[in-house]
Write a structure and sequence with these properties.
Blueprint: H1 29-39, E1 49-54, H2 60-68, E2 73-75, H3 98-102, H4 111-124, H5 128-134, E3 139-145, H6 156-162, E4 167-171, H7 176-189, H8 203-211, H9 218-240, E5 245-247, H10 250-255, H11 257-267
Parallel strand pairs: 1-3, 1-4, 2-3, 4-5
Length: about 300
């Protein structure tokens, strides 16, 4: 595994955004430090921004959520491209969106600056017990779909973001032809379930998926060439900037998601939380506040 690079100093705080919070009593200092030792590597080395470099239908949502479900991080889904919450996750309030909650909109030409502003807003607005447990460790996770969000193979705004000292990249690449077919299937069947158990189970959608066929074509070959070029340009820029990245091939991820998630957490300076602190939800965009009561 490549070494974890050192991250820059913490950024200035942004105004609080949580409206009228009601939380349990915070942990005392000893309890917070004890929990912190179970959440963070020693010494802690958590980057401000974690980037999931992937494509549509490439396990980007699952890998982003694997890190974003940690108490010291938050997944902002596809905020680089659009503000909506990820579908299929009941823990989120789908009547709101990230831009509204954070007070930050993302614009292609200022991706880096916008990501840093979003991170500032999120970190400052964390409840007191989360700040006590995580200390200065605070990361946002952003998905990059190379097939969808870029203006060019070597998109300057993207390369500036992914090579920034503020960011650390996890590259999740799936076979390009398989990706092309998966995208074509969900568009034809109108079913964007992230995993087999989240697909629509009614007869019409099930038959559509079963009957779908995908063969190589000029369109699929153009897609493959484009995706390969964009992954190559990203890796080349990371090497030129002497920035490490974690390679997490799609097949390796789905083969053993538990081991893959441990590797990803380790790469960004986080430990697998104790069971009761996994998948907590303490953001203003949570459907319900979730944090274990003090013991």
């Amino acid at each position: 595994m490549p070494p974890r690079p050192q991250t820059d100093a913490l950024l200035p705080a942004a105004p609080a955004i949580w409206a009228n919070p009601t939380f349990p009593e915070p942990y005392n200092a000893d309890g917070a430090l004890q929990l912190r030792s179970q959440l963070l590597l020693d010494p802690p080395d958590v980057p401000p921004i974690v980037l999931i470099v992937s494509t549509q239908r490439g396990a980007s949502t699952e890998t982003a959520e694997a890190i974003g479900s940690h108490p010291c991080a938050a997944s902002l889904n596809e905020a680089l491209y659009k503000p909506e919450m990820p579908v299929g996750y009941e823990k989120y309030n789908h009547r709101t969106d990230f831009y509204r909650e954070l007070g930050v909109s993302f614009h292609h030409d200022t991706w880096l600056e916008d990501a840093l502003k979003a991170r500032e807003a999120y970190c400052d607005a964390r409840p007191a017990e989360v700040k006590q447990a995580c200390g200065s460790a605070c990361a946002i996770v952003l998905k990059m779909h190379l097939n969808q969000m870029l203006h060019a193979e070597a998109d300057p705004s993207w390369l500036r973001l992914v090579t920034s000292n503020h960011a650390r990249a996890i590259v999740v690449e799936r076979d390009a032809f398989t990706t092309f077919c998966s995208i074509a299937k969900v568009k034809e069947c109108h079913d964007w379930g992230h995993t087999p158990d989240t697909h629509r189970s009614d007869t019409r959608h099930t038959k559509c998926r079963e009957n779908f066929r995908c063969e190589p074509s000029d369109k699929s070959r153009k897609f493959e060439d484009s995706v390969h070029g964009r992954f190559a340009a990203t890796r080349s820029a990371l090497r030129a900037a002497n920035r490490s990245a974690l390679e997490m091939p799609f097949d390796r991820y789905v083969e053993n998601t538990t081991a893959a998630e441990l590797r990803m957490l380790d790469f960004v300076g986080l430990r697998l939380p104790p069971p009761e602190w996994r998948d907590t939800c303490t953001y203003s965009w949570c459907a319900n506040y979730s944090w274990p009561s003090p013991k």
